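Hi support team,

I'm opening this ticket because the web form for multi-chain structure prediction keeps timing out on my end. I have pasted the exact lines I submitted so you can reproduce it. The total is 1001 residues across three entries, so I didn't expect it to be a heavy job. Is there a limit I'm missing, or should I split the entries? Thanks in advance, R.K.
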Amino acid sequence: MSPGSRPWSGVQRSMSNWAKIRVATVFLLPAVLSVILLRLWPALLAIHTSLLAPRAISYSLENYIYIFTDPVFLNSVRVTLVFALIVNPLQVAIALGLAILMNNKLPMTGLWRSAVLLPVAIPQSVSAVIWAAAYRPDGLFNSLLQAVGIGPQRFVTSPDQALASIILVVSWIGVGYWMTMLMAGLQDIPKSLYEAATIDGANAWQRFRYVTLPQLRRPLTFVLVADTVANFLVFAPVSILTKGGPQGSTDLIMNQIYTNAFVNGDPGSAAAATVVLILLVLAIVLVQFRLMSDRSER
Amino acid sequence: MMENTTPRKALQMVVIAAVALMFLLPLYWLTISSLRPEEDIFRYLNPFGLWTVVPNRITFDNIVNLWSGAFSRAIVNSLVVSFVTVIVGLAVCAPAAFALAVISFPGRGIIFSAMIVSFLIPFDAIAVPLYSIMRGLNLQDTYVGLILPGVGNGLAVFLLRQFFQSIPKDLREAAMVDGMGWFQIFWRIYLPLSKPALISAGLIMFIFQWQAYLWPLLIAPSNDMKVAAVALAQFSTAYNVSFGLIFAGAMFLSLIPMLIFVCFQQYFTGSVAATGSKE
Amino acid sequence: MLMKNSGLLAGVAAVFLMSTAGAVWAEQVTINFLTAEADGGFDAAIDQFEKDNPNIKVNFETVPFDSMVPTIEARIGAHDSSIDVFLVDTPRVSAMANSGYLLKINEEKDAVKGVANEAGLSVLMYGGDLYALPLWTSTQMMYYNKNLFDKAGVPYPSSEEMKRMTYEETIELAKKVMAGSGAKYGFSLEQIDRYYQLQPIFEGNGGGSGLKDDGNLTPDVSNAKWVEAGKFYASLFEKGLAPRGIASDQMPSTFTNGDTVFYVSGPWRLQPFTETEGLHFGVAPVPYWAGGKPQTPTGSWAVSLNPYAAHLEEAKKFAEYITLNAKGVGLVLQGIPNIPVNKDAYGPYVDWLASQNPQIAGDIKKVMTYELANTAVPRPSSIGYVAFETVMNKAFSDIRNGAEVEATLQQAQQQLESQMRRIK
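Hello R.K., no limit was hit. The queue was backed up. Here is the completed structure from your submission:
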């Protein structure tokens, strides 16, 4: 719609910038203050730490040089990128599929929807133990595979299967959560659009492609960005199931950060790795915003 | 597709139930494991048989011991922290999201970017600097210290902003012509139209606190202030891991939010759809 | 009237005076004691200590085992005064002392020498100074499943020190019992990919502890002896003698399920194994390398003081009570029956422990006492120990999962060299 055609569209424009800033400040102040104090300020302290080499009192890039010449850290960057490249599209697609499936009004839908959400409420450390019992060589999965005549698999003990095993665990934890956010988006799509499309003879796929997807753009942007961020910060399942192994095949950057900060007592390189991770995620998120933005909006 | 509604519905029902059961299986395993004596928990994994899925010896020791210890107090703490975080958090985040979505003030892009950056920061990585800040404010072993980091949630602001943007501009412009102020527009139009989004934002903040581990460990070390995730982890000491207790605890920790969410399902329907148009 | 009033006044004054005196008398200090033990573990000792010292109250705080290090790094690193006294894992004493997390307590040296032996004292020192008081230690023994031996018709191994088996003999016997009983695994260790339990296999082969030279800051983990030991370790999994893919915390189930012939673990497993229905087991000394020197792991938690503590005097009094005072040590053992370092407490402790399992009481006592006195070798003392352990545990885990031994150890060596350069 073109804004100029309506008589009242000038209301907001007629407000002075100062009036808008005043109103916005009232609405934003608590959130902005808490984000600055509780997130951005400590993050600045982390940047400060990242610039201090061990036992040094003046700033230098030594910690960054150290991590970028450390084959272990470089490997973790590579693993993290591969992991992100697979897990994000996979989870968003499954979450979207589940959301559309669960959006049907059927008996006990509330219960089924909540069931899918359940794994996100289990402490991740416990989820990892449950999966460890399933992945054990003599565990549940292999006994099930054996029962149907398939040979035993190595799962988390094999450098070829470990990352896939981790992806399965984090997806099982996360998809219900993202499904819920997308379902909230589905609620907002006007029924009339589907009716109109049906009258025009659109089939199920066409209705999805030309009604659901465009209408879901904003929630989908949220889920894509938030899920990407969440997956870059995955830590507990890796630390419990594989500790980054075998042979570094599941060594995500977060695992490196945690190990350096809290096990090895090397806060400098942990902080440097944190800064690198944040920049990496920021770059990816910016690309996602570009891809998902509505061209007519810009 | 309209003509064979009943078989189609039945098929959907079966698929939905099957998917949901896949997600429920671990809860089932937690439950049967917490009913077994400790040495039976990992005994019947292989080969697959009746005793893999049904406990052959049943004990309620784990559940009784769980609730007679510090865990019950910790569950109460977790519930208090999570609920207060959701309520205060929504009061903080929803207005912010509203301002970012509908008021076109100068500097909006910068503030929105700050919100996005705030949730990119791995919270565990800044827990230590944050701890030195909060300890200076005398917030150790207080609910305020536990709740505060969950309140300003950039992710929730982002989510709500996305949903608020979808609410038709016509609605607020009509309201302005009627003489409504920004606050009234927010309170009487945007909030009532965004129940599913508010529930989702609440869910984000609830889960943030429910799963929180490292932060509560540092800021609330006394026994009276422990949260459930920490109390649960404590069943593994240097020389022994009490899986029966851990699984029993995890069973309750997952059931409670699930029941809460079931209760909120009735509000999980949109009303924007009724307005007919959408941005 | 006047009399009455003044009497009342005097009475009020007296009450006032008494209450002030009382307040001075009962001015209580609360000290915070941070541990990674289960709730109630120290109750008996704390109760008695509070009775003996009515002006001190001990607040027992506990964090999950895996979170003890992050907690200390974060809280004491931020100069938190609300921890007074805490438990510290002995191999971390050097690094923590170096970071300034532990208070120097040289004035206690003589007292510690009175209760602990040389090895027990050495793990509490860093750079010639004392930083911790000795609480517990540990040892390992080789549990074996008697049911499996009976089923295979093979006689039980001996617990006599003189008849300690070599690794080769142990493996051979394990294979025989596996063949005869259908057991899944022959020989495995509880902390199956951690340095603590693997040190005897690697260092015991004559290739050194993995760290050498001044301050133990030079890694040496890819020499011929280490590779040889690594190949033996790898063969355990290649030949199916020990399981892959089971984490340490789930390993005990392989023994209680009756799947494993020989299982190396600490005395802390005696109670759960004894309580497992239908499990009959014995204990023997851990194996050694033919031609090598027998060696067992050791070390556990000690007690340290926070340099920034709010109530140092009282905290020190409590730390002394639970480590140096025989009565205090005994009361701690009532709650947490780990092996005490305190010589006076050891005798009654081991008698009690052995009596819990009467059939093998003699063996338990003999094996434990001998190993603690003769074969215990602590983990290398180094400010780089923790980083060393992290890298090595990963390397062990990779070897366990089938990575090539020599390449893995060389990679670990390179990684350690670059990390140690940062620490030096």
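A quick check on our side: Residues 272-279 of chain B have pLDDT under 50 and may be disordered. Let us know if the file doesn't open in your viewer.
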